[in-house]
Design goal:
This protein has 166 residues and is α/β, with parallel strands linked by helices. The protein has one domain: Glutaredoxin. 35% of the residues lie in helices and 27% in strands. The strands form two sheets. The protein has a five-stranded mixed beta sheet, with helices on one face. The radius of gyration is 19 Å and the shape is globular. The N terminus is likely disordered.
């Protein structure tokens, strides 16, 4: 009974936090129903302070591990925070607005990026991302620091402030 109640609560939460639209398309005498799920938070048109990062951009902007895989050499001008996530990951969805808030707060001081591990599996493999969310904190003269799992805003702020003070 407790499991059924828990499943109903989770289902109701999902339904109230997402907007779903259904499209019916007829192809070759078969009716195909496509469901498009859009997170209600992403429907606002505010500027995002967190930039999407691809494998090639990572190599150009952050660290060219293809050139020197054994030595971390940060290429960025400012320290950066990189959020490795997946769109289906619940804890990642909790971290995303925190990263957005911190990116806005530290705008001009720290670059914030996000990497969808489903879209960039090669980068995730090279950096040995085995669990998500994984957040990297990087800057010149320092080895990358990473956290695995979802934490509160203060946890990330302490790491960023420490990174900026060193």
């Amino acid at each position: 009974m407790k499991r059924l109640l828990f499943a109903l609560i989770i289902g109701a939460t999902f339904l109230t936090s997402c907007k779903c639209s259904h499209k019916e398309e007829k192809t070759d005498d078969k009716k195909e129903v496509k469901t498009e799920v859009t997170n209600s938070e992403s429907t606002n048109n505010e500027k995002s302070y967190v930039k999407t990062l691809t494998y090639n951009e990572f190599v150009k902007k952050i660290w060219d591990f293809e050139l020197d895989p054994k030595t971390f050499t940060f290429k960025g001008g400012k320290p950066c925070v990189i959020d490795f996530y997946a769109t289906w990951c619940g804890p990642c969805k909790k971290v995303a607005p925190i990263m957005e808030k911190l990116a806005k707060e530290y705008d001009g001081k720290v670059d914030f990026y996000k990497v969808d591990t489903d879209q960039e599996p090669k980068l995730a493999m090279v950096l040995q991302i085995k669990n998500i969310p994984t957040i990297f904190f990087m800057k010149a003269g320092m080895q990358p620091e990473k956290t695995i799992g979802a934490y509160d805003e203060d946890h990330y702020r302490k790491i960023i402030d420490k990174m900026l003070s060193e």
